[in-house]
Design brief:
The structure holds 2 protein chains of 2 kinds.
Chain A: H1 3-14, H2 19-38, H3 45-57
Chain B: H1 3-33, H2 36-62, H3 66-93, H4 101-114, H5 123-150, H6 154-175, H7 184-206, H8 218-239, H9 252-255
C-alpha cells in the first residue's frame, strides 16, 4: 500500500462523505478558542456551529420515496432524487 | 461509577455492538460458505492488530496535557460524530438505504461461493474475515481510544467494548444467523448523537470554554443534539409531501 493510499484511507476514515463537516468541526473549536482567549466563555458557540453545519449539509435532501420527477405535480422536472451525498438539492420551494 | 464513566461505557458499548454485528455478518457468511478455520484465523489476526494498536496509542494519548488532549480528541470525535450522525439522519429520514444484515449476508455468501475453494489454506476466507474485523474494529478502536483517553480510563472503555463483542458473539453463535433483529439503525443514531455531543463538550472545554455546571451540562447537551437531529429527520421527511415549483434543481456538481 502506497503512502498516498494510506493517506486517502485515513482521510476517508476521519473526514468521510462531507469534508465541510470536518471543516465545521475545526472552525467550531478554533473559533471557541479564539473568543475564549479574548475573554468571555462561549460554551454555546461550538454546538451552534456544529448543528448549523449539520443542518446545512443536509439541506435539500429528500427521502427516497419521493417520485423523482416531482411529487404532486404531473409536470416532469429535474431533480428530486434521494441522496446520500452532500450538496444534492431538491428544487427550491 | 460516575455519570461520565457511565456515559463512556454506554457510548463505547453501543458503538462496538453495532460494528460487531456488521463484522459478524461477514465472518458468518464466509465461514458457513467456505471454511471456518481460516475465517476465524482472520478474526484472530485482526483482533491482535487492533489490540496492539490500542495498547500502543492508548498510553501515548493519555500522556498528552489535558487541554491539548481535549482539543485533539474533541475535534476528532466531533468530525467523526457529525459524519456518523449525518448518515443516521439520512437513514432515519428514508434518504439512504438502511443497513440490512440479511441482505449483506446473502451478498457476501454469493461472493464467497463465486471464488473456488482451493486445497490447503483458504486465503480468501482469511482475507475477507481479516478485512471485515479490522475495518469495523478500527472505528471501535478509535472510539475506545478517544473516550478512554479523555476520561483517563482506557481500561473501562476497552472493557465496555469487550462486553459488547461477547454479547454479539454469544447471540450470533446461539442463532447461527445474521443478527437482523438488532436495532442497528437506531443504535447508530444514538451513537452519532453521543459522539457529536462528547466531541462538542470536550472540544469546547479544551478550547477554553467553561460549561455551566461542568460535566452536568453533558446530559442537556446530548438532549439538544438528539432533538436537533430528530428535527432534521422530520424536516427531510416533510419534503416528501411538499409541492415542487417549476424552478430547476441543482446538481451535486453545481452546489459543490
Amino acid at each position: 500500500m502506497t503512502p498516498r493510499r494510506v493517506a486517502l484511507a485515513v482521510w476517508d476514515f476521519v473526514v468521510g462523505d462531507d469534508w465541510r463537516l470536518a471543516l465545521a468541526a475545526v472552525v467550531a473549536i478554533g473559533l471557541t478558542a479564539v473568543v475564549c482567549a479574548l475573554g468571555p466563555s462561549t460554551w454555546w458557540l461550538a454546538p451552534l456551529i456544529a448543528l448549523g453545519a449539520l443542518r446545512w449539509s443536509l439541506r435539500g435532501t429528500v427521502p427516497a420515496t419521493r417520485p423523482p420527477d416531482g411529487g404532486n405535480d404531473p409536470t416532469p422536472k429535474a431533480g428530486g432524487h434521494a441522496v446520500d451525498q452532500p450538496g444534492v438539492q431538491s428544487p427550491p420551494k | 461509577m460516575s455519570g461520565a464513566e457511565l456515559s463512556l461505557a454506554i457510548s463505547v458499548f453501543l458503538a462496538c455492538a453495532v460494528e460487531a454485528v456488521e463484522a459478524f455478518t461477514i465472518v458468518l457468511a464466509v465461514g458457513t460458505t467456505r471454511r471456518w478455520r481460516p475465517a476465524l484465523t482472520g478474526v484472530g489476526a485482526a483482533t491482535l492488530v487492533l489490540a496492539v494498536l490500542i495498547a500502543a496509542l492508548g498510553p501515548a494519548l493519555t500522556s498528552l496535557p489535558l487541554g491539548v488532549l481535549r482539543v485533539v480528541v474533541g475535534g476528532l470525535l466531533l468530525t467523526f460524530g457529525l459524519q456518523w450522525l449525518r448518515k443516521a439522519i439520512l437513514r432515519a429520514a428514508g434518504a439512504k438505504a438502511k443497513h440490512d444484515e440479511e441482505a449483506i449476508f446473502e451478498t457476501e455468501r454469493a461472493d464467497a461461493e463465486a471464488v473456488p475453494v482451493t486445497a490447503g489454506f483458504d486465503g480468501y476466507a482469511f482475507a475477507i474475515s481479516f478485512k471485515a474485523v479490522l475495518l469495523e474494529g478500527l472505528e471501535v478502536a478509535f472510539i475506545v481510544l478517544t473516550f478512554g483517553a479523555n476520561q483517563h480510563d482506557v481500561g473501562l472503555a476497552a472493557a465496555a467494548a469487550a462486553v459488547a463483542i461477547i454479547a454479539v458473539l454469544g447471540a450470533g453463535l446461539a442463532l447461527r444467523a445474521p443478527l437482523a433483529r438488532v436495532p442497528e439503525n437506531g443504535m447508530k443514531f444514538v451513537v452519532g448523537v453521543l459522539l457529536t455531543s462528547f466531541g462538542i463538550f470536550w472540544g469546547a472545554e479544551g478550547a477554553g470554554a467553561s460549561w455551566p455546571g461542568g460535566e452536568a451540562s453533558l446530559a442537556p447537551l446530548v438532549a439538544v443534539v438528539a432533538l436537533a437531529a430528530l428535527a432534521m429527520v422530520a424536516e427531510i421527511k416533510g419534503r416528501a409531501a411538499a409541492p415542487i415549483t417549476d424552478a430547476p434543481s441543482k446538481t451535486a456538481e453545481e452546489v459543490a
